[in-house]
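in:
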């Protein structure tokens, strides 16, 4: 007798032998007991979880000559013919190779005839989502008015590709991935029956590698047993499947934690020399850090981790070395690396780059720490700068005298503002002079004008921010640009862009003015000072007259290298 693979030899023969799908088997058994079997079913789910097997058991139960309700007897002529695939009443159709309208027309013609032996004609269409649109339309007519003796069972791994018109005429069952512990139990049963010597750790690794597919696990076990002649251990499984030893993953995680880039590169070199697939290595490392994260934040460890108590203890020891934010950053970086690994043949380079990046990362600052610092600022309990991961010594020195720097900056603004091309800067000087009043009004409104344009068209505002008002007459304002920003000036000279700026001036300052654009010499102290003043004013989100940024907010901006993006955020009196 020819050899029969484990996946075929140990295929379930009754409903209770189907593992991991009690919500489906219970429903089908009740339907058989009460004669409420529908005319069409859709079995959807990942590969190797029992869709086709369940369809065959249901077909047997419907046509069994001596049924042991709800299960088939598996010994009568009808059951044997179905098991051997030679039954005239059970037609298994591959949707991938019989996907055209002609095949469905043939099915429609044959369905009219009564079954040859059994009670029903059962049509099992595997991978039904592969049918063409025309074939689905032809199938739809059959499902609407099927003969009493016809039953349909569709199986698919992509239910979203099945038209809604077909789905609405079927009872849909979604098969789940099988739990690792159920797969492990099945593998132990097979090794016991076959009298194989395979260690529990090796079986557990096979079960995890199957990713919820019972068939995949049985095929892997069959392959390993053939290689080792009935005796296998953990090392055999690692070699045959190309998996990574956990010792390497722990060592790589330690190297990342200790910021040992050289050590991490040596580990990667060893993995490459052993011929391991870099893609699988990255996936294994992501899963490793996922286990660490679960131990940091999870409460029900047994439900979330398929690990022995000894391994959980070891993971727990390493998890204590990392913070939650740190692990999240590592997982995020490695997940992005997966895309690069897929797109290149030089898979080693993106992996090494990612590991070096992780080994040289800056210390993570948690959100809780930042919130506490802000709370201390609001309470007025801090005058010195807190430790910030990216701060340089010069930054820390500057932040140690925040109040003095703030006062100096305010004084420098006043000094800068005075020589601005004859513009009147104070209300006292503008009294009784209408033109000067307009100048002051426009000057104060300029940051708000730029922000108004930014809300309309951010590209125009970004060009405009490189210039500043240098001359204001009764009906014209001249915006000056340093010569190195010639491109910005030319981009704004189109009629459409000028019209947008003039509309913004009218809307914000209530002044009707035309725009003139000009290049200026960059070495003018006054011009560079003016540019610095406007850049700082715009950067701090200054708005209309009378809006002042709260000193505490300004200190926070200095501490965290931040900026205010809203027009009213952080201002006294804002809501």
């Amino acid at each position: 007798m020819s050899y029969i693979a484990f996946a075929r030899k140990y295929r379930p023969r009754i409903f209770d032998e189907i593992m991991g799908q009690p919500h489906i088997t219970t429903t089908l058994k009740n339907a058989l007991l009460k004669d409420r079997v529908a005319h069409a079913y859709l079995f959807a789910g990942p590969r190797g979880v029992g869709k086709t097997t369940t369809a065959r058991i249901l077909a047997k139960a419907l046509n069994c000559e001596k049924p042991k309700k709800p299960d088939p007897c598996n010994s009568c002529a009808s059951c044997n013919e179905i098991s051997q695939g030679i039954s005239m009443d059970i037609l298994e159709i591959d949707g991938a190779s019989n996907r055209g309208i002609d095949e469905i027309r043939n099915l429609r013609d044959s369905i009219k005839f009564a079954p040859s032996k059994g009670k029903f004609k059962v049509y099992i269409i595997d991978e039904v989502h592969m049918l063409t649109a025309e074939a689905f339309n032809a199938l739809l007519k059959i499902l609407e008015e099927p003969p009493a003796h016809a039953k349909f069972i569709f199986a698919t791994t992509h239910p979203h590709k099945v038209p809604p018109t077909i789905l609405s005429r079927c009872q849909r069952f979604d098969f789940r991935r099988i739990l690792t512990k159920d797969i492990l139990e099945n593998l132990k049963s097979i090794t016991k029956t076959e009298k194989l010597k395979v260690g529990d750790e090796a079986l557990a690794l096979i079960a995890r590698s199957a990713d919820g597919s019972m068939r995949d696990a049985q095929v892997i076990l069959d392959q390993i047993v053939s290689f080792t002649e009935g005796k296998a251990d953990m090392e055999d499984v690692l070699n045959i499947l190309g998996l990574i030893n956990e010792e390497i993953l722990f060592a790589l995680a330690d190297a990342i934690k200790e910021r040992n880039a050289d050590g991490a590169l040596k580990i990667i070199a060893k993995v490459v020399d052993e011929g391991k697939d870099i893609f699988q290595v990255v996936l294994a490392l992501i899963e490793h850090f996922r286990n660490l994260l679960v131990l940091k934040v999870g409460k029900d460890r047994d439900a979330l981790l398929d690990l022995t108590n000894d391994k959980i203890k070891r993971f727990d020891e390493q998890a204590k070395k990392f913070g939650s934010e740190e692990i999240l950053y590592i997982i995020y970086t490695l997940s992005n690396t997966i895309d690069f690994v897929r797109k290149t043949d030089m898979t080693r380079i993106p992996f090494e780059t990612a590991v070096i990046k992780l080994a040289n990362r800056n210390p993570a600052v948690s959100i809780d720490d930042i919130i506490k610092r802000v709370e201390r600022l609001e309470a007025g309990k801090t005058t010195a700068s807190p430790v910030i991961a990216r701060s340089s010594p010069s930054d820390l020195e500057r932040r140690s005298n925040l109040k003095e720097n703030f006062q100096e900056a305010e004084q420098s603004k006043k000094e800068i503002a005075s020589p601005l091309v004859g513009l009147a800067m104070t209300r006292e000087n503008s009294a009784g002079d209408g033109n000067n009043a307009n100048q002051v009004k426009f000057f104060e409104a300029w940051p708000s004008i730029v922000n108004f344009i930014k809300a309309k068209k951010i590209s125009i505002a970004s060009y405009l921010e490189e210039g500043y008002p240098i001359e204001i007459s009764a009906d014209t304002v001249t915006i000056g640009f340093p010569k190195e920003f010639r491109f910005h000036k030319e981009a704004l000279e189109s009629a459409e862009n000028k019209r947008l700026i003039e509309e913004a001036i009218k809307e914000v300052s209530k002044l009707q003015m035309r725009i003139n654009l000009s290049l200026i010499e960059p070495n003018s102290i006054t011009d560079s000072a003016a540019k610095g003043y406007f850049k700082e004013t715009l950067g701090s989100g200054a708005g209309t007259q009378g809006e002042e940024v709260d000193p505490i907010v300004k200190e926070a901006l200095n501490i965290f290298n931040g900026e205010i993006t809203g027009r009213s955020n952080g201002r006294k009196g804002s809501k």
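note: Confidence is low (pLDDT under 50) at residues 382-403, 409-432, 540-547, 566-575.
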